[in-house]
């Protein structure tokens, strides 16, 4: 029988895979940032589940670091998105690649 820690790790791996698929398939920069956030939250969930399985507080401490990193990533990422939109009037990654040439 699978215990609850294994189930949470399975959910975290599914969430991480969905975030990875979102980063690789989406063309909009904002949706790519959202997918990266899903991946960060999935890794935080995995740390908390692993810490709960081994009765160690390390997973929760790592989750706090992940939350701090995610907050910094969101602020820098959204600033870059606003700057890209101001300069190019689009957030489509393929269109931005065409503008490079």
Question: Could you explain how this protein is built, in words?
Answer:
The protein has 101 residues and is mainly α. The chain has a single domain (4-90), classed as Orthogonal Bundle (Helix Hairpins). The chain contains 4 helices and no strands. The protein has helices at 4-25, 29-53, 58-88, 93-100. α2 (29-53) runs antiparallel to α3. The chain is elongated, with a radius of gyration of 17 Å. The chain starts with a helix and ends with a helix. The mean pLDDT is 91.
Please indicate the percent range of residues in DSSP E strands (runs of 2 or more).
Answer: under 5%
The portion of residues assigned to helices is: over 70%
Report the structural category: mainly alpha
> How many strands, what sense, and barrel or not for the largest sheet?
none
Overall outline: elongated
Uncertain parts: none
What is the total tally of β strands?
0
How far apart are the termini? 57 Å
Count of DSSP-assigned helices: 4
Examine the coordinates and then state which fold CATH places here, giving the name of the CATH topology.
Helix Hairpins
Under the CATH scheme, which architecture would be assigned?
Answer: Orthogonal Bundle
Query: What's the mean pLDDT score?
Result: 91
Computed over alpha carbons, the radius of gyration is: 17 Å
By CATH reckoning, the class would read Mainly Alpha
User: Could you say how many structural domains there are in total?
Assistant: 1
Q: What is the chain-wise order of helices and strands? A: HHHH
